[in-house]
Each structure stands twice: as C-alpha cells, then as structure tokens.
Design brief:
Blueprint (H helix, E strand, L loop, with lengths): L9 E3 L5 E3 L11 H31 L14 E2 L2 E2 L1 H15 L6 E8 L2 E7 L14
Antiparallel strand pairs: 1-2, 2-6, 3-4, 5-6
Length: about 140
C-alpha cells in the first residue's frame, strides 16, 4: 500500500488507542439539511479512520516496515517512552522474531473521531526455550 493516507497521521499508544489530528467543524446553521450533510461527512470520516487503522494492522502483520511512516508519527511513544519510528520498528521486529506467528487481529473497533480504540486479540505462541543440561 503506497498510497498517501487521507487523514493526518495518527498517534498510537500501547493499548491500541489512537488519535488522528484533523479537526471537523460542525455547521453553524441549525438547518436540518446542513446537519444531515455533517452527519454523512462524519460517517465517512469514521469509515476512513477505521480503514486506515485496519491498513496499519495489515502493515504490521505483513511486516512491511517501510510502510510504518504512513501510519505512525516519527515521535511515537510506547508506555510514555519516546521511541521514534526507528525504535518502534526495532521493537516490532524483535516481537516478530520472538513470536514468529504473531498476528494483530481486531476483536473490537470503536471510532469516535478524533479518537479510535481497539481491543486486539492474539492467537500465537512464544517458542519454548530449553536449556541443555550437561551430565
């Protein structure tokens, strides 16, 4: 996926909560036609945001590290620690090396712009590391 995202890049934390930074202004008029148009526009934004998040998880699952910059800001933080995109990439590479069958799967996705929250499910196993014991 080498297309540019239709919204501003998102910031994500370790709980799968993201925030995109484009503001949406409500119509000033109390006219029902304007209100309906705004609701339709908001629905489109919700779908776009959800689609972008799904594309982000697809990027992770395919391990398409060169595409991370389409989805996360260079100033990405993990548990309050600034990683930058290079550190985030290193962390993900290590996660996939440690857990070869790691897949990010959406169990629940809620979009209420400007926020997005997801419950992710993981069906994977870490390899068992055994130590050889000499007699």
């Amino acid at each position: 996926m080498n297309e540019t995202c239709p919204v501003t890049k998102a910031r994500h934390d370790s709980f799968g909560v993201g925030r995109y930074e484009r503001s949406v202004s409500r119509p000033c008029a109390a006219d029902p036609i304007y209100e309906l148009a705004f609701q339709r526009k908001e629905t489109v934004l919700i779908r776009q945001l959800a689609d972008i998040y799904r594309a982000y998880l697809d990027c992770l699952n395919r391990q398409a590290w060169d595409e991370l910059g389409h989805f996360v800001d260079n100033e990405i933080q993990h548990n309050g620690r600034l990683l930058r995109i290079s550190g985030y990439r290193e962390m993900l590479v290590k996660d996939f090396e440690d857990i070869p069958n790691l897949q990010f799967n959406i169990q629940l996705l809620v979009c209420e712009p400007p926020r997005l929250a997801a419950r992710l499910s993981f069906n994977c196993n870490r390899p068992i590391v055994t130590a050889e014991i000499s007699p």
